[in-house]
Amino acid sequence: MEPGIDSGLNTAVERYYDITLDLYEDLWGEHVHHGFWDPGEVPGLNGADRHAATDRLVRELVDFAGVPAGAAVFDLGCGIGGPALHLAGALGCTVEGVTLSAQQAARANEKAEANGVADRARFHQRDGLANGYPDQAFDVVWALESLMHLPDRAAFFAEALRLLRPGGTLAVATWSVRDGELTEDEQELVRQILQHQVMPDFSSLEEHEQLARAAGFTDVAVVDWSKAVANSWDPGFAQIQQYEQGRSVMRNLARERGVDVLGFFHAGPLMKKGFDTGVITYGALRATKPQPPQDSRPGRTP
């Protein structure tokens, strides 16, 4: 088995997203990730709805990382293609997206065709750490809420460095955990979230920064967006209660798809508690692949 690849975990993640794809799209639209709000904004009162807020998160990561227009982008954990469609559309990027879920990849390709960007955005069922792309193939490696599913995050940063051209950009947004030791109750909360969301563990934002530097990235910067995204688990925003109110609907889903689908419903209140207590955090990371040193010996052209 190649380093960083866990076939058992990959299978579990693939199954989770296959059986919940329509639930996420029905509730959250094309963006299967957190939203972003300014301080004091509340969804449904004075803040953006879920569609506008999730769109904004993509733009915030583009701006924070400095993703250039027209870049060649590798999208690790592309989901159903929402962020990639923005990159290929508004920014004119070419995007190669990979996901463990065949159903997600198929849906993303359908959406790219419907949005007129199929020539610039392509999606594949493929392991992000065994993706088959050559060295230095991309200007940007983009990972929006996908690192949580990877058991070997050091392998991710090494692979991102391999895929990037010199001077290329790494753009990450991820769930994370508060740095430092957790109490037993806090550890139990994290354990339940990991179980229901099919994730091996969480790293802190500080650990992500350390891993990026250790892999060889330069200009590494991290920003904590926990307060900006916490509204994502407000019951009105998540809208999971429309299913929870119909217990017969949940029972039927469990019969049709297996009990694993119920993790989709349990995650909401657990994540809200995590953000409310500060145990769960969320942030973005940007980094640059360094340029090779120039040969300054006499007679050499720089």
Automatic annotation (TrEMBL):
| Region called SAM motif I, residue ranges | 73-82
Q: Does the keyword Transmembrane helix apply?
A: no
Q: Which GO terms describe its biological process?
A: methylation
Q: Where are the annotated segments for SAM motif III? A: 163-172
Cite the Pfam families for this sequence. Methyltransf_11
Q: Where does the Polyketide synthase-like methyltransferase domain start and stop, copy by copy? A: 39-290
Q: What is the lineage of its organism?
A: Bacteria, Bacillati, Actinomycetota, Actinomycetes, Kitasatosporales
Under Gene3D superfamilies, the record lists:
Vaccinia Virus protein VP39 (3.40.50.150)
SMART domains xref list: PKS_MT (SM00828)
According to the lineage, what is the superkingdom?
A: Bacteria
Molecular functions per Gene Ontology: methyltransferase activity
Instruction: Give the organism the record lists.
Output: Streptacidiphilus alkalitolerans
Tell me the keywords, alphabetical order. Answer: Methyltransferase, S-adenosyl-L-methionine, Transferase
- Do you know which InterPro entries this protein is assigned to? Erg6_SMT_methyltransf, MeTfrase_dom, Methyltransf_11, PiNMT-like, SAM-dependent_MTases_sf
Q: Where is this region: SAM motif II?
A: 136-144
UniProt-recorded name of the protein:
Methyltransferase domain-containing protein
Instruction: Spell out the family assignment given in the record's similarity comment.
Output: Belongs to the class I-like SAM-binding methyltransferase superfamily. gTMT family.
Cited CDD domains: AdoMet_MTases
